[in-house]
Amino acid sequence: MGNGKCMSLLTLVGMVMVMLHKVASQDYGDALSKCILFFEGQRSGKLPSNQRMIWRNDSALSDGSDVGMDLSGGYYDAGDNVKFNFPMAFSTTMLAWSVLEFGQYMGSDQQNALDSIRWAADYLLKSTDVPGKVTAAVGNPKADHNCWERPEDMDTPRTSYVVNQTHPGSEVSAETAAALAASSLVFNSADPAYSKALIDRAEEVFDFADKFRGNYKDSVGEGVCPFYCDSSGYLDELVWAAAWLFKVTNEQKYWGFVQDNIAHLPKPAADSFAEFGWDAKNAGINVLVSGWVMNTTTSDPYVPQANKFVCSVLPESPDKSVTYSAGGLLFKPGGSNTQHATALSFLLLVYAQYLKNHSGTISCGTFDATPSRLEQVAKGQVDYILGNNPMGMSYMVGFSQKFPQRIHHRASSLPSVGDHPEHIQCKDGTPYFQSNNPNPNVLTGAIVGGPDMNDQFPDDRSNAPESEPTTYINAPFVGILAYFKAFPKLRTSI
316 and 494 in contact (C-beta within 8 Å)? Predict the structure, then answer.
């Protein structure tokens, strides 16, 4: 028995050493560059002369013509050809927050990150160009999802879904305001005039979202549901936007809005302190606001709730509400699981910096969590996604030697216009979807939904929850990678 225990210990030590070697070998700088490059593959509209994802071409140039607006530009949210403004705006907010917190570590990639934000912000300005109206989506999603077609070939209806004073949509409007506000901070020094235009519009859109309240699923229906219905209500987006507006303007009316409404988030949102993503903003609100109220008389409820969020994520916490696979990937219910791993890791990393600034730790019942522990957990998720996992697979396309080859993505899986100039009609793309061949176009930097709870990934194009990339998976990862590019040697453990 003694020898068996010794051998088991030696085996465990060997496994740990291998894992540490893998972690040490990660090139976070390369991953960062590719993570940002992904957004160029999602671009809609007239592509610029410096477009680096060269197998993509111009698409959807007439978007908005059905409502007398120019709605060209922006991003396709995932592997389809619809522009859903709600998750697009959230992705923009997260890209901006990434630059604000960690831009100093990005090096030459900071300009590429700014370009990715500006591509979205320009579109969001167009989407809010008519007072009292906010675009919610462009492209009929049911018709689009019925086709496997390149964005350059689209012949499905490009219906514009717009909320207004009689058919409101407070969540998409407020998230748009948050995105514009956060982006304005990013461009404050580099382009003051553009920054002012963004914050002016953000204030206008927030006022509209607040004054004309309503759920956008009731106003635009099948234009966004069941794809991006908001299950948490719109008050969290209003508070989120007000927090960003206060951070930008320092105007007390926005702080007053946050203070007056933070305790009134409707159930189940009031119990969702650990939720953060395109749908629910609770944990993000508490972490963001903690950045300026920590160790002040107004720290409650933000800091206590942010601390509670951290304790719900740390693997050793008695209050843990997430699960971890045997290989170490964080899991929450729902598809596209890596969205949770990237978004929650981003919050852990940001909050760790705030704690460092105030010499803080967090009490999670039986133990105290230090800022470095938060960083360790975040880094563990990064390393898993980049290949330190049981399958030895990077879930970022184009990173490392082994990555998903058959991602659920129309433009990537169909031949490019350069290779196949002829129009590919709606159903003519089906054989490409059904093919077992690797995608002909590498969507470099795309992070897919990821493996199942057993750390298995079949690399199956038809399995959208696992094989489809999205902008809101990548956006928080940009900031995380920038930090670990600068501080790569932090040891990790689950």
Answer: no
Write out the two tokens for 136: 């919610």
Q: How many CB atoms lie within 10 A of CB 10?
A: 10
**Total count of residues recorded for the chain:** 494
Q: Residue 59: give its domain's CATH number.
A: 1.50.10.10
How far is the first Cα of the chain from the last one, in angstroms, to the nearest whole number?
A: 28
> Which SS3 state, helix, strand or coil, does residue 237 take?
helix
Q: Please state the pTM of the whole predicted model.
A: 0.94
Nearest CA-CA partner of 81 in 116, 118, 56: 56
Q: Is residue 1 part of a domain?
A: no
- Catalytic residue, chosen from 408, 409, 420, 423, is 408
- Output the six-digit token pair for 71: 């709605």
Q: Look up tokens 């007439």; give the residue.
A: 62
The DSSP symbol for 438 reads: P
pLDDT at 4 over 90: no
Q: Give dist(CA 92, CA 178) in Å, integer.
A: 9
Tell me whether strands 362-364 and 160-164 are parallel, antiparallel or unpaired: unpaired
**Whole domain around residue 261: which residue ranges?**
24-486
Q: Is 21 a catalytic residue?
A: no
Produce one character per residue of 273-291: b if its CB has 16 or more CB atoms within 10 Å, e if not: bbbbbbbbbbbbbbbbbbb
Domain count, the chain: 1
pLDDT in tens, 248-286: 999 999 999 999 999 988 666 556 889 999 999 999 999
Which residue carries 């607006």 as its tokens? 69
Confidence band of 366 (pLDDT split at 50, 70, 90): confident
- Please give the helix or strand (H or E) that residue 13 lies within, else none: helix 2-25
Cis-peptide into 268, omega within 30 deg: yes
Cβ atoms of 244 and 257 within 8 Å: the answer is no
3-state helix, strand, coil in the chain (%, to 5): 50, 5, 40
